[in-house]
Amino acid sequence: ISALEPGSAANPHKFRNQDYESLRDGCVKSGSLFSDPHFPADQRSIGMAPDADPKNAIRWLRPKEISKDAVFIEGTTGTTDICQGQLGDCWLLAALSSLTLHPTLFAKVVPSDQSLTESYAGIFHFRFWQYGDWVEVVVDDFLPVRNGRLLFSHSRTLNEFWSALVEKAYAKMAGSYSSLKGGNISEGMEDFTGGIARSLKISSRTPLALWKLITASLSRGTLLSCFIQVANVREIGTVTPQGLVKGHAYAITHSDKVYNKSGEVFLLKLRNPWGFVEYCGPWSDKCKNWDEVDSAEKKRLELIKVEDGEFWISTEDFSTLFHTVELCSVNPDSLAVDEEGQYSSPSSWTITSYQGAWVPGCSAGGSSKYERSFWKNPQFRLTISELDDYEDEDEYSPKEKVMKCTMVAEVLQKYRRQKDKTNFLQIAFHIYMLAGESKPLGQKFFSSRLPVARSGKYQALRGIRRKVRLNPGTYVVVVSTFLEKEYHLPLETCRQLIFAEDTGGRSRLTLPQTVQLLSSLRKLQSIFIKYDEDSSGTMSPFDLSLGLQAAGLECDKPVLQLLWERVGAGLSQLPFHGFISCVVKLRVLFGRQP
Q1: Out of 83, 90, 226, 328, which one is annotated catalytic?
Q2: What pLDDT does residue 121 have?
Q3: Is 342 within a domain?
Q4: What band does 337 get if pLDDT is binned at 50, 70 and 90?
Q5: Which of 248, 254, 430, 577 is catalytic?
Q6: Transmembrane segments in this chain: where (predicted)?
Q7: Can 272 be counted among the known catalytic residues?
């Protein structure tokens, strides 16, 4: 995209056709403060039912009504500026923390021509990347407040408001604040940079190789974050003995090394968006390990013994305690980091994007196990011819010494968060090599060919991506959802779900009950697909045990056997509706809601 092309960072699309400059100038001229009709200061923008307790009522106030010394930015921005409020959007705030480390990128998202004093008109604007284009979002500065404090994101400096306004603009783009509940860190990092995100299993690297990779990535402007994987939903938010929060997003902000009596110690600096609850293990702020480090070194590393959510951790302990690192390369060349984290020679990348859709009955053919319909999925043809000009080592396969072409493929689901919160489809892609075929490929081709690469298991994420190295040639990328269509539930299972609710004898659900039930079913669908190891659309007894644990339901073998006899009698595998029946029966038994 050229600098002034519509959709570029310098010339973003206007969200809701609202032009910041004309709206601001109009307010300044009339002496009024801007009120946004597209994101009103009321419960609709919150997206959640109001609290029944009047003491917890929400008021909408402008910054100067919250703090008499209100400023947009207090001095400079930093990773400790951002503290999470009463909204489960740590994934977004961790990405925002990483963004503050890169002034040029930060200025793209948060334009510097804004203030709560000069030419103040109660209007602000921010830029986000959305599916290939940059979008400018305008908001007023009414912010939700409860008991005199900002309800959601806020700065550690209570008179600073830039982070709260960025969060509001992103919430407007998503439809409401509640639409930001739960997400993947890569989603936020991509939307703040327009870059390409990828996940790295920490166990795939030695601690030293991981430190080198992170160090090189940070120096190239890559945004990094990490998290501890949870075994089931009940573990989300629990704190480990080391003071780390499970299922919670942390930003990786720095890497460095120090020397002690044992030699070199390789360190990483992490940031918890909560602004509190810090790591308390080796090399944490108040750990005695620092007594062996020279005072000048501690000053250089800005070691501060205060609970601000930021802390150092050795790479050895990091590799043991964390599960995944998320990396977002700001430009494609940033991906050219080898296994040891060394720079490779500059390379030229070509970026190509396509639009498509899964239309039921037309182009929604389901996964490759649906041989009769898989070919109906969207197919994208590409030709790669230029060999890499450096010797790379593929992260996802054994080391290769043959020169190949490196490609990063990514599939994004558009607008799913806005439409139905985080109701993402389970998606994946397969790459096949062509041998002269020119027309759209049919069932016969896919029945006789194996893919040369694939994204991995189907996942309910906004975006899936993979870096692959292929031989020069022509390929087709097939993007698909897990099933041809949405899961269906037999009438009997629907009755079980309704009767398990407290309907007051009406045999029908209220609107809040329906919304809650649908949300629960989406979560159970994700669990079912995760533990459907062979992608057959069914579960084995062993898979059922794991799936029930992930749903927060643990039962011993006799109960599991009895459950299978009741629900899966005569079956060797259990379909989706059978899994739902098992969950309902156990939750009724344990006195829980479906």
Answers
A1: 90
A2: 96
A3: no
A4: very low
A5: 248
A6: none
A7: yes
